[in-house]
Design brief:
This protein has three helices and nine strands. The protein is of the alpha+beta class. Strand 1 and strand 2 form a beta hairpin.
Length: 237
């Protein structure tokens, strides 16, 4: 009887160990999503005595550790925000850079507004060689990261219409001007007319979203007529 009891205990402990191992394996196989927040403080630079602060933009960046979609583009963007490489290359950061500013970037009801804002940066990347184009080779290997719409396609995170989200996407250029460099765009998908929507994302890679609380700052950028919105501070939260 003593032998039988010890044997039953051993079986129970073995079963418990197997269940623990199964749960560990399940947790290991589950995709790990890291969330990174970056910010830009925006002003209109006029002169030293009358700069116009517009507010702060905060973006949530999502990075799938197991199956990253645009890991190099995302890493480059984060490092340009933080200025990690500034001591090596004083041009490898976003502070002091201005968004494109002309009639197409002013929301005045005339119908010319492009429902987005572009910042070209200084063309000096923060990963690899500063003047070398970034190329995420894993992009075409993950068909789930390629989204077709309006006869074209865009990449990265898929846009979804969410009532709790302002639908403002942070994108990098995958094809065309600024591809693989410091250029990025802030795209107002949800607020755009029906004929635009996801079409605004074509040939770009979606790497993040604007936080809802920052929408008034973006509106201020779009509706002011003082001059180019400029990044005066940036970093990681």
């Amino acid at each position: 009887n003593e032998y039988q009891n010890n044997n039953n205990n051993d079986i129970f402990l073995l079963k418990l160990r197997i269940e623990e191992d199964d749960s560990t394996i399940t947790s290991i196989n589950k995709p790990i999503i890291q969330q990174q927040q970056v910010y830009f403080d925006i002003e209109v630079i006029m002169d030293s005595s009358s700069d116009k602060p517009l507010g702060r933009l905060i973006f949530d960046l999502y990075y799938d550790v197991d199956e990253p979609v645009l890991p190099l583009h995302t890493k480059n963007f984060i490092k340009l925000c933080s200025g990690d490489r500034k001591s090596i290359d004083p041009l490898a950061h976003y502070v002091g850079c201005s968004f494109e500013y002309n009639a197409n970037y002013i929301e005045d009801g005339s119908g010319r507004y492009l429902w987005g804002h572009i910042l070209k940066g200084r063309g000096r990347n923060a990963i690899g060689r500063s003047n070398e184009l970034i190329n995420d080779t894993t992009l075409n290997q993950r068909r789930s990261s390629i989204h077709s719409c309006f006869g074209g396609q865009y990449y990265g995170k898929k846009y979804d219409d969410n009532d709790d989200d302002p639908g403002v996407m942070l994108t990098v250029s995958i094809a065309g001007p600024g591809r693989g460099s410091t250029r990025f765009s802030i795209v107002r998908v949800d607020e755009s007319p029906l004929e635009w929507k996801e079409r605004l994302l074509l040939n770009s890679g979606v790497i993040g979203r604007l936080q809802k609380s920052c929408l008034p700052t973006l509106h201020a950028m779009a509706r002011q007529r003082l001059g180019p919105p400029t990044i005066v501070a940036s970093g990681i939260l």
